[in-house]
Specification:
7 helices; eleven-stranded mixed β-sheet; globular; 30% strand; single chain; alpha+beta
């Protein structure tokens, strides 16, 4: 081996430069990885009670497919109390919950809760149309992140501002979630009309902002907002809300009155 080769191999200055270069590369990798960390670790438990109809079950499945940060669970029996959902969320390591409660196999209620400290909101689900029913032309990538669009009415009253924040934390996919894709190609639209929350899902077709509806569609009629998770002090109660039982009773009374009038006339 010649002297030049020995000098090249045993030159300490070159080794120090190499070490510094590798150190800088490792530091740059660490800083880039730390900046690209998944920090918002929101997980949403989406499940239903027993007795849910086929249409409501398809709606629940559509919501699960639209939320890559959701987790499924088996149907909960009606004998269990609502407060036990907090324990199920802790076992599943979920901080939010969307629970579909079926009654009389025709009425569907939806709970949106921040587990375990609250608040939570209860809605009556109306005008349900799933993706299979609509067969719309819109389409989006599975597990892509949505843009959340809210009506300006949400900022006018305190209970609507609370619902807006609850929807943002529940339906918004966390940035850099492992199951999500780094694409934004659809919009969740929440609008208020007739004291109800209307949900629509649109595909962003082009950069100019043109939209095509994907589905599903449903309307949320707010009933109550609680301070705790599935319990606690009532923060808001909808005075204009009428239960489905009351509506059916009033309809029956009107039909009886009309038949009596026909007999007299």
């Amino acid at each position: 081996m010649t002297k030049r080769k020995l000098q090249k191999e045993t030159n300490p200055k070159q080794n120090i430069k190499r070490l510094k270069a590798t150190k800088k590369q490792s530091e740059s990798k660490i800083t880039s990885s730390s900046s690209e960390k998944w920090t918002n670790k929101e997980r949403v438990l989406v499940f239903a009670s027993r007795g849910v109809s086929y249409r409501d079950r398809h709606l629940m499945q559509d919501i699960r497919n639209l939320m890559p940060h959701s987790k499924p669970d088996c149907k909960m029996s009606k004998g269990q109390g609502l407060f036990s959902i907090n324990e199920i969320c802790e076992m599943k390591n979920c901080s939010k919950c969307v629970y579909f409660e079926a009654r009389k196999k025709k009425d569907l209620y939806m709970w949106v809760s921040n587990v375990p400290h609250g608040p939570s909101a209860k809605f009556l689900v109306q005008n349900v149309h799933t993706m299979l029913e609509l067969k719309l032309t819109g389409n989006c990538l599975k597990s892509s992140r949505p843009i959340l669009s809210f009506d300006s009415v949400f900022d006018k009253t305190p209970h609507n501002r609370l619902l807006k924040e609850l929807f943002i934390q529940t339906f918004g996919t966390p940035h850099r979630h492992p199951k999500s894709q780094p694409f934004i190609d659809h919009v969740f639209n929440f609008s208020i009309a007739d004291n109800r929350v209307w949900f629509r899902n649109y595909q962003v077709v082009e950069e100019d902002g043109s939209l095509v509806e994907i589905g599903p569609r449903f309307v949320l009629n707010p009933i109550k907002i609680f301070a705790g998770s599935f319990s606690g002090q009532v923060l808001y109660e909808n005075a204009a809300y009428k239960s489905p039982n009351l509506v059916s009773c009033q309809f029956h009374e009107l039909s009886v009155l009309i038949t009596n009038l026909d007999t007299y006339l």
